Amino acid sequence: MRSSLLGGGTDAFTMRTHQLLSQLAVAAADRPPRLRFAPSPTGYLHLGGLRTALYNWLLAKKLGGTFVLRLEDTDKARNFQGSEQDIEESLEWAGLTPDEGPRRGGIYGPYRQSERIAKYQETAGELVARGAAYPCFCSPRRLQLLRHEAHRRGETPRYDNRCRFLSVAEARSRRDMGAPFAVRLRLMEDDADGFVDAVHGPTRHDVSAVEGDPVILRTDGSPTYHLASVVDDAAMAISHVLRGSEWLASTSKHLQIYRVLGVAPPVFAHLPLLCNPDGSKLSKRQGAVTVQDYRLSGTPPGALLELLTLSGAGFHVGPTVGRILDEMVSDFDLSRIVTNAASLDLARLPDLCKTHTARQIIDDRTRQSMVHEVQDMVHQKFGLQPDEALVDRVLQLRKGHIERLRDLVADDVSYIWCPVEINTTELQRSSPHFAVICLEAQR
């Protein structure tokens, strides 16, 4: 069972912890910084995935390294048409452009796991040859019965490791007869030295005591996450792996594969899961959960990114409203990421949108492009072509009041662009901003 040992413990484990911490520092210093975001294209990119991409991108840029996009698309049944394009476009929209990936290429490609199947099969064969893995001939029916029996006894289902005791000759005979088989990793017993997670600290999980030997290659020849992620991270020289905390307990298995392959593992950092303020899982009932929802609504990407950084911490400077990517890079601190589930308060997004939109308006470089964007919006909705000076003036006056540029072409503010009869008496009763905008628009 995993335990985070941040203090106390036996002298032996304390000494081992110090050794691992030293190894962690050496591992980070001895290789070029290369970080990856490796989503599965099974749907539109969600907010948790965007935060994982953001933190990998931030650390890569802070260390002067490389940010890699890799698609884990080996599960053909779950792959979603259009997902790959959505992931790439969402990263571009957010300003997290990969340095390497399916679209940009790179020396470590291909960057789709479906194009690397032969390498996984080759590695699985190497592990079997070294005795670190073995073929499993158990039928789906037998595995289902094991699960049912475990549930009947109120136990956690686990594989009973039956096929690990087959002789080499017997396994070869079954293969020669054409029996279908998967490949399982032979978990090392009493291998609970632990490892140092950059977020959770010294951690250990005796997987052999609580789990059966896991499948690393399915009967159809496709790899599971445990094998493919290790093979790819090693082949692509990944130095740091930042991923969700749901993979923390599996890291011990991954470290065993690294050890057998004779490859130095990367630095691991497991990020807290995102949840609603009440602790429940993110869902559409509480608000939009895919990046596409926010892209299509005109949300400023900086506002959404800042909201994500407020969920899980990770910065040596306290919350600063309006922080942009360059500032996030300089302030990012991996050691300050929290270990508990991170609450995502979507109610804060409107104010963040106003702040980021206002910051863009203040900047002369970004305001010019905003002027042209608003001109296009007005032309598309009202068939009018306002001059740049008017649009610029409107932006200046509405700074701090609008969340998105499209707020300027809402039906209830059409008076800004469309000719209207002005009632002087009513105008005098209106707000100063309203009066100025109306007068500007009628000139």
UniProtKB/TrEMBL annotation:
* A single GO molecular function term of this UniProt record: glutamate-tRNA(Gln) ligase activity
Locations listed in the record: Mitochondrion
| One GO CC term on file | mitochondrion
Enzyme Commission code(s) on record? 6.1.1.17, 6.1.1.24
Q: Top EC class per UniProt? A: ligase
In the record, biological process GO terms are: glutamyl-tRNA aminoacylation
InterPro entries for the chain:
aa-tRNA-synth_I_CS, Glu-tRNA-ligase_bac/mito, Glu/Gln-tRNA-synth, Glu/Gln-tRNA-synth_Ib_cat-dom, GluQ/Sye, GluRS_core, Rossmann-like_a/b/a_fold
Domain of life here? Eukaryota
| Reaction(s) this enzyme catalyzes, per UniProt | tRNA(Glu) + L-glutamate + ATP = L-glutamyl-tRNA(Glu) + AMP + diphosphate; tRNA(Glx) + L-glutamate + ATP = L-glutamyl-tRNA(Glx) + AMP + diphosphate; tRNA(Gln) + L-glutamate + ATP = L-glutamyl-tRNA(Gln) + AMP + diphosphate
- Pfam families (alphabetical): tRNA-synt_1c (PF00749)
Q: Do the record's keywords include Ligase?
A: yes
Please report which protein family the annotation says this sequence is part of.
Belongs to the class-I aminoacyl-tRNA synthetase family. Glutamate--tRNA ligase type 1 subfamily.
Q: In its UniProt entry, what is this protein called?
A: Nondiscriminating glutamyl-tRNA synthetase EARS2, mitochondrial
Source organism of the structure: Eptatretus burgeri
User: Which lineage is the organism of this entry classified under, starting from the top rank?
Assistant: Eukaryota, Metazoa, Chordata, Craniata, Vertebrata
